[in-house]
Amino acid sequence: MSTVWPRLEPILPRVAKPARYIGGEDGAQTPEHHPAKVAWLLGYPDTYEIGLPNQGLQILYEILNERSDAVAERTYAPWSDLEAELRAHEVPLFSVDTHRPASDFDILAFNISAELTYTNVLAMVDLAGAPVRSADRSVDDLFIGAGGHCTYTPEPIAAFLDFVVLGDGEEAVGEISEALAAWKARRAGGEAVTRLDALVALAGVTGVYVPALYEADHDADGRLLGTHPIHPAAPDEVEKRTITDLGEWPYPKNQLVPLTEVVHDRLNVEVFRGCTRGCRFCQAGMITRPVRERPAEQVRTMVADGLRRTGYDEVALTSLSTADFSGIEAVVGGIVDGDDPPPADDGEGQGPGTSLDCGSGLGGLASDISVSLPSLRVDAFTVGIAAEIQRARRTGLTFAPEGGTWRMRQVINKLISEDDLFGAVESAYSQGWRRMKLYFLIGLPTETDEDTLGIATLARKVVEIGRRHHKNPSVTISIGGFVPKPFTPFQWFGQNTREELARKVGLLRDELRRDRGVALKWHDPKATTVEGIMSRGDRRLAPVIEDVWRHGGTFQEWSEHFDMQLWLDALERNDLTVEELVYRHRIEDEALAWDHLSAGLHKDFLWQDWRDALDEVGLEDCRWTPCYDCGACTGYGVEHVVASAVPPAGGSQGTGRPAAVPVTLGSRPMATTS
Amino acid sequence: MTRIRIRFSKRGKVRFTSHRDVARIWERTLRRVELPVARSQGFSPRPKLHFGLALSTGHESEAEYLDVDLVDGAVVDLDALPARLTTALPGGLIAAAAAEVDPSAPSLQHAVTSSRWEIEVLGLDLPTLEARAEALLAAPELVMVRQRKGKDVTDDVRPHLFTLQPTTPLDGGALLVAELGTLGRALRPSELLTLLGEEAREGKVCRTHQFTEHDGTRSEPLAAPTVAEPPRAAAIAAAPVGRPSPAPHAEARA
């Protein structure tokens, strides 16, 4: 077995955070490779700290290693200091599990969740020893694949990818392995198979998009006319994969526990996939429909087993909107109560802050466990639960109203009234929370300065409420620039210019300048603009991305590396403009660079929802109210899978009662990604 | 209140984790074996773990220590504990011994007076290393500028140089056994390398012992188990274990 460790070890003392590269995590596997098995190198195109906790990657890692026809190991982007050393010493990209060189694998597959990591993808492909352009790869080179949310808009990087998986990967990776194993067997048997034969076989897997089998046409002005197949094996429209029963996939079974510090460093249990709240700005919600909940009993088991195995003292129930998990109270209650408490003559006293016996399994552990709920419906009752969960381990609370005025929130379909927000905040402050964080977007469609300043008004009122309970309450307002995303009703909206976003940030800064207790944070408008370049981009962007990479533009998600000038220069060299790519409003019948891919949503549903947004009409959560035929379920013949037939307490959109406020409860500040 | 002391080693790839990483690993490990660890008071109860001297990222060790406070009345099988811990620890971290200690005794940070190190010195052959080591030991004082908390500090580090014993030649250098003082501003192996000259480069570094001194007797905070791995270099057996060689002005130091 080849390993780069002997060449890597002497380099590590010279780089920052060498523990990123050693592997050895609890749950790490050392699979046995075999020529007949398809070897996957699963990669996350950012640092180890960001990539290790990625659930998608961990799920596929386990599933592939359970198969008899595949093996999987992991790799992450080497930081710039190690990359320089690797290149200087001609050490290739390697797996952290066994330090195998990338060339030992058949596939290098990335989970791509952020556009600003595209240049890291190129860097890693290059470090792996493969030509960055798909067309330049030979029959001996790696197959480069991608999955994750960015794959719904893969055209900017289509030239670099051999295959793209849309939707859930659990079943698709098995079928891809079978297809490639068959191709390898033919090759091993002496047949003169070509790389195209492999790509054609991959295109036969539902949910797999093979860019090389499609061509994009542009008019004389460069405007996209359409993307169509140029090979009989390629479907006109690639449909995403949807697993219908999350209960059949209780992964990860052995979540990786890192040796070193990473983000989201706790037990993470996915409670459901999909979301039907219908917030119009949210791509994740739109493309992952329908909702598929994990059975509540399975959640409880995964939590209990996971905590016992890992020794973590914090568990996060993850999803796009955990408040809406219909079994939420039972599950949370179960975690808090755990087993029966130990008998009274053991130990001395059980109040918070005194010694706690943790010898009796989960019962003892439970009182130490903090439960993180990325989104929690807040009314007085559930804050009560939250207080009970957190006990003395209290940290900040996060709310995400997103829009500063009721009007704005109707446009984006996040139907939270001010009364809801203030009621929730009041409950939280009165229960002892002192710090509050509020997330907002600026640059939303139809936004006026009144809407922007509405953010400041809300912030002030929240602090006022806080002052009734604490001497020094604090509120942090976190502002992100809105980037219109494909497959959302806002995909036709021209993004705010960076000057406009900066102006709005300036408005808020001036407004809040004298407010003690309110801290304002904002995402760099330049980074927002670059994200916008790629968010709805087409194949003309490939040379731009390659250009930025070749000029050293890796780790663009990191403020210390982000450099807008690299992007502007690259655009200019390729006769492209930010005005056309980012700021321009799209029209109804123009071709979009993702028309040949399907997330299940009917395009006319999205257009109608866009018109409704402009008319400030809200849309109800279809899990509990009649279906409005967005296409996601009817197209696939699936239905929502819910853990309980009874909607969660606190009311819901469309039931006539005000919707509750999504709250994020965490014991650590979340890493801010775009 | 019961306090137990755990002696553990850190070898192999895991040497690249930091001291803080190791602290977190221990918190999780103690939960996994369900050891009844006491919690601190107040708003954010933490398990009551007390770490000994930090080990620099990249260095190995056979002698790391951790004190753990247990809840009152806890009963733990100390003989079986090291093996249980080792099973729950990541590869490269091995629990060697566990024993009860007096909670009122000075903490590890205060009780330990020196560490013994095996240092691979690259760039100097054995005769040169021997000459340099002799010169350092003969010097009445060794003033150097070091970095502490981002600031430059100037100290005479000669009192921290207890013993220096070059032992065997290595590929590209030689092995040095050094005992360095830890109280006050401890002398670190990397700082010792600078004293040995510009060409001296650091290879692998391993802490083999920590020593406490009490009423004139030297001992370890917790001895290694009797069935220990043989020392890396046979010459170690010949290395002096008695009193450290005094600096020429030891009286002034005391």
Key traits:
heterodimer; A: eight-stranded mixed beta sheet; 15% strand; B: alpha+beta; nine-stranded mixed beta sheet; two-stranded antiparallel ribbon; 6 helices; 11 strands; 36% strand
Description:
The complex is a heterodimer of chains A (674) and B (254). By secondary structure, chain A is α/β, with parallel strands linked by helices. Chain A has 21 helices and 20 strands. The longest helix of chain A has 19 residues, at 449-467. The radius of gyration of chain A is 25 Å and the shape is globular. Mean pLDDT of chain A is 85; it is low at 339-366, 377-381 and 644-674. The relative contact order of chain B is 0.18. In chain B, strands 1, 2, 3, 4, 5, 8, 9, 10 and 11 form a 9-stranded mixed beta sheet that branches. In chain B, strands 6-7 form a two-stranded antiparallel ribbon. Chain B has 254 residues and is an alpha+beta fold. Chain B is built from 6 helices and 11 strands. Chain B is elongated. Chain B has helices spanning 19-32, 81-88, 108-111, 126-138, 189-195, 250-253, and strands at 2-10, 49-51, 60-70, 93-101, 112-122, 143-148, 151-156, 161-170, 173-181, 201-214, 217-219. The A-B interface holds A 12-13, 18-19, 21-26, 257, 259-261, 308-313, 346-348, 352-359, 361, 364-365, 368, 392-394 and B 13-14, 16-18, 20-21, 24-25, 27-32, 34-45, 57-58, 71-74, 88, 90-92, 202.
